[in-house]
Amino acid sequence: MFSLSTTRAQCLRRAYPRSIRQSWRFQPPRRHATATAIPTGATGNTDHVEPTESLSNVLESGFIDLKPNEGLLFFDNIYPVFSAFLDTRFIPVRLDQISSADKLIKYSIPKEFPIKVNQVIPRVKEGGAFVKFIKPANTIDREVEQQMQNLLQQNKIRPWYSPFGQIRCFLVEGRPWLEDLQRFPAARLKVEFEGQDVSPEQLYTMFRRFGRLIDINPLPRDSKELPRYAYLTFGKIRSATAARNCLHDLRVKTADGKETQLRILYSRTVKAHTIRKWIIDHPKIVVPIILAVIAAIAIAVFDPIRTFFVEAHITHSLDFGSKAWTWFKGAASTYLILNKKSGTEGTGDLSVLWEERKETVETVKSWLLETTETFIVVQGPRGSGKRDLVLGDVLKDWNYTLVFDCEPVQDGHGDAQIIRAAAAQVGYRPVFGWLNSINSWVDLAVQALKNVALSQRQKIDKDISLNDDEWLEAHPEKRPVVVIDNFLHRTDAAGEKIYQRLSDWAALLVSANVAHVIFMTNDVSFSKQLARSLPDRVFRTVMLGDASPEAAKRYVLSHIHSGMSDEEKSKEIEELDSSIDQLGGRLTDLEFLARRIRTGEMPAQAVSEIVKTSANEILKLYFLGDPAKRSYTKEQAWTLIKMFGDGKEDQLRYNEVLLHGLFSKGGEEAIQALEQAEFITIVSAEGRPWAIKPGKPVYRAAFRKLQSDKVLQAKLDIDVATELTKTETANVAKYETELTTLAQLPSKPSEIAGRVSYLLKKLQASQMKIEQYEKEIGALKKILQSEF
């Protein structure tokens, strides 16, 4: 035995009363309960107690033996109740020393109380203590319990560790089992019956006085499990500990008069199962919480990573074409042969083609240096060189660009693929299709673009007094450029939602001065879509057409002259003029021509193959397939082909086409659909449609190629004549119906004579057209019968 150190003792003097400090001594840990004895004959509590020799018998047997003149009380709330997750090997011993049971019971039982305390047996694990007392003659145990409870209710003795709880006292009616097993108190008791079952009503009467009962679950009557039992759940653990210590091994009489012995055990509820059951039973609450937690974790963990990748995508710091990689490649080429061939084999001099577009390039560059909050739109047919103009010339020296291609996004199937494709365009990774949305990368891309723009701001400059937004507005040359390519690539309902979201995002960028936005589109009706996002702005628009014949010739020559002799050059130049006149100035077709010439074909032969390929393309795209998916008919497309072939000019009058019988109803919608399909191009002048041109210059020659096929022409002419016959037949039926109505009038007034004459003339004209169409159909059928 040894006392505590000086520092430790000083702390204890401040924290605990002197009476408690005197009993504090360090002892080695022990598992069994301690007991103190009060000498027989003492009244109430005494100032000093000594252990008795009879304690060893109690610990060995586990039961407290009572003489006829002795009783047993259980005092609750003497110690804290310990659960299984606490280490109780040392704490109960020290708590026993800090708050000894004999001292608290001394405060609880005054000297004038009419009992003689014989022994105090602490139950540290269960938070209480047994008090064995000698009762006077003719004393009823219940009266002692009642008087003790009244006394405790008046004095309200509270232990130091529980300022809101008070000590309680109960009469021990059973035979408590003083075990020191690794079993810990719980609010749920398992009451086993040795004998007949005890009814829930009787159990409630017996156990309710210890505390509020939550539930009583008896074993089903048809169960064959032995021994029989019932579960009792209390609201507090202390109520369960008091009930077990007071009623264990009690013999009670059942309804049939037989005795049943109660065996009471703690039954711990597995909280994991309870939590799991609650989660399963409340999915409407749990699922949103889980998703919110996952989303919060994803934002906290992955958003910085995604921001890094988006910024790297804008600055091109991870591209092989970046300045760092170019420097490394140049340095390594000094020692390693990375480029064995010199020159630019297989590539032509684009400057010869864009010489006439220098003014357009300079115009777009000047727009990027202005603070106007609007879009820049580069519109032109497919293959007109929009991408090369913007990325190759306008943005050649611009440091930070972000190219968003709508085509792979629009071609995605399902929301997950669309989100992944859109995220790839801005460098947003990693992507979780089930968790991310379009808004995820849109918001992050805006922040990344702003960070990139502000990264160019110097700590010391003349605009140091400006905030970030004012600085971005004052320095348009520092903003990144967002290029949205293939805008309005498809015009179905699903695509319209994507385009609307992109245009709203672009409007946010230009309105906040975060970035410049350039749209590249083939669709001439782009203003309708963009006006929804910026309704009060005028767009900066550039219209690109085909190259002039002279520029197209120089472009092809720049491709084919490399590695050729002078004789071969002069021979091909002679045929090139007529070939380019037939092919036109579309960039993709010129590249195709140059590629075929380089393989050894003559220009005339190469153009012939290109025209043939274009003719097959027209048949596949505009005449074959499901007619329900088209907003025009093949008869309308064939009519335009014939009108282009019959005319001497390269364009048709827009309103003249509408006068044709097949375009009399819904003609403008059909023409617009054909333009969307890139079959034709509508030329506007002074704000109205003015003329119609082929979708590509080479289509003019392809149209003639199709007309030269007699069988194809005869078949499609029959279809056109059949449609026109149906139209005239419907007109005849309409005229006949009106004439019949007029003939049924009771009298024949002279006023209707003019109307009747008019209808008869219209009917005759329609009938003559029907007869003419039928003759043409008959002649065309003979061609089908004689030609292959």
UniProtKB/TrEMBL annotation:
<keyword id="KW-0472">Membrane</keyword>
<dbReference type="InterPro" id="IPR027417">
    <property type="entry name" value="P-loop_NTPase"/>
</dbReference>
<protein>
    <recommendedName>
        <fullName>Mitochondrial escape protein 2</fullName>
    </recommendedName>
</protein>
<dbReference type="Pfam" id="PF10443">
    <property type="entry name" value="RNA12"/>
</dbReference>
<feature type="coiled-coil region">
    <location>
        <begin position="756"/>
        <end position="783"/>
    </location>
</feature>
<keyword id="KW-0175">Coiled coil</keyword>
<comment type="function">
    <text>Plays a role in maintaining the mitochondrial genome and in controlling the mtDNA escape. Involved in the regulation of mtDNA nucleotide structure and number. May have a dispensable role in early maturation of pre-rRNA.</text>
</comment>
<keyword id="KW-0809">Transit peptide</keyword>
<keyword id="KW-0999">Mitochondrion inner membrane</keyword>
<feature type="domain" description="RRM">
    <location>
        <begin position="187"/>
        <end position="269"/>
    </location>
</feature>
<dbReference type="GO" id="GO:0005743">
    <property type="term" value="C:mitochondrial inner membrane"/>
</dbReference>
<dbReference type="InterPro" id="IPR034260">
    <property type="entry name" value="Yme2_RRM"/>
</dbReference>
<dbReference type="GO" id="GO:0006397">
    <property type="term" value="P:mRNA processing"/>
</dbReference>
<keyword id="KW-0694">RNA-binding</keyword>
<keyword id="KW-0496">Mitochondrion</keyword>
<dbReference type="InterPro" id="IPR000504">
    <property type="entry name" value="RRM_dom"/>
</dbReference>
<dbReference type="InterPro" id="IPR018850">
    <property type="entry name" value="Mt_escape_2_C"/>
</dbReference>
<keyword id="KW-1133">Transmembrane helix</keyword>
<dbReference type="GO" id="GO:0003723">
    <property type="term" value="F:RNA binding"/>
</dbReference>
<feature type="transmembrane region" description="Helical">
    <location>
        <begin position="285"/>
        <end position="302"/>
    </location>
</feature>
<dbReference type="InterPro" id="IPR035979">
    <property type="entry name" value="RBD_domain_sf"/>
</dbReference>
<dbReference type="InterPro" id="IPR012677">
    <property type="entry name" value="Nucleotide-bd_a/b_plait_sf"/>
</dbReference>
<keyword id="KW-0812">Transmembrane</keyword>
<keyword id="KW-0507">mRNA processing</keyword>
<dbReference type="Pfam" id="PF00076">
    <property type="entry name" value="RRM_1"/>
</dbReference>
<dbReference type="InterPro" id="IPR039627">
    <property type="entry name" value="Yme2_C"/>
</dbReference>
<comment type="similarity">
    <text>Belongs to the YME2 family.</text>
</comment>
